[in-house]
Amino acid sequence: MISKPLVIQPESVSDHTGLVRRARRLIQNLGWLSPTASLESKGGKDFGRRIEASWTEIAQGHGVMRLQLRKRDAAVVMSIDHYEEVVRMKALCAELIEQVKEKEIAEEADEYEALYRRITSPQSRKAADGLFAATSDSLRKTYQPGGTEAR
């Protein structure tokens, strides 16, 4: 089953769910895409000598056929509609990758902002000021030996 050409619309936050919906629909439409071993096959001589008949078989069948030369798989022949379906899938994958990348960047930016707020908070400032203003006597009073140190 071949899907109709997709209309690319401008990206927006609400388009993310539309993109996922389009991807799911396209994957369902690619049901004809299967391992080469499961495809109907034809020898190179037979295919070439009767190309119009072979093409009719492709068009009336599943739209794809395995071509063998010297009893070895050589190519997969598909209809233009099937090829365009694969091209649409490629474009959709590129869109999905771009949106995942944008989401990852946004998440990293959020983490950076949260860390920056913690570092520049009044509590952090007070702790840093206290650390740099500490005297050796006040540090000595708060020292507690760890488990590997002698007391």
Please tell me about this protein's structure.
With about 150 residues, the protein is mainly α. The chain is built from six helices and three strands, in the order H-E-H-H-E-E-H-H-H. The longest helix has about 40 residues.
Major beta sheet, strand line-up: 1-2-3
Mean pLDDT: 79
Q: Structural class, from secondary structure content?
A: mainly alpha
Report strand %: 5-15%
Radius of gyration (CA) equals 32 Å
Helix content: 55-70%
Stretches with pLDDT under 50, minimum 5 residues: 1-14
The H-and-E topology, N to C, reads as: HEHHEEHHH
Categorize the overall geometry.
elongated
Summarize the structure.
The chain is mainly α. It is built from 6 helices and 3 strands, in the order αβααββααα.
List the helices and strands and how they pair.
Blueprint: H1 15-29, E1 41-43, H2 44-49, H3 51-60, E2 64-69, E3 72-78, H4 80-119, H5 122-133, H6 136-142
Helix pairs in contact: 1-4
Note the main attributes of this structure:
mainly alpha; 151 residues; three-stranded mixed β-sheet
